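Note to self: user wants both folds in one dump. Writing first protein now.
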Amino acid sequence: MSRGLGDVYKRQPQYYVLVRGNASKRGNLDANRRLAESRAQAAAEYLIEKGIHPNRMHVVGSDPTGETSVSFVLGEAPF
């Protein structure tokens, strides 16, 4: 986990985290969607291990964007 994300989360308990997995546009669309969801879930499990409560997270896999990454968005309301 980014040290910054964990620090912000601990100092701002009203924040929620959106965990979004991304996948490449190459290949099968359904397979890429599953891959994006899997990436997001793996990142969420890591955040849970680091102390972020699962009720304060929303985990999604996005439609393939061409990026192969996971992004995090902090907000003050549930996503």
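First done. Writing the second protein, which came from a different request thread.
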Amino acid sequence: MALSCYEQAINLEPNYAIAFSNRAAILKELGQFAAALESYNQALSLSPGNADDYSNRAVVLTSLRRAEEAVADCEQAI
């Protein structure tokens, strides 16, 4: 239900970084790490200063066994 609400929000406002971030968080919890990564990438392209998104993307990257990128995101979040 929540996932479809964020999908609708993105369709209505494709530059709404918070919707991408929240969709990514749901996808991460569902174990859909590749899709979560894409959503975090989009959120960060719209709001590049969001430390929470860098931190959360680092978790996703770790789940995808992309440790070096995850470390870079952790550094960016600080």
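Dump finished. Worth passing along: Residues 33-46 form the longest helix (14 residues).
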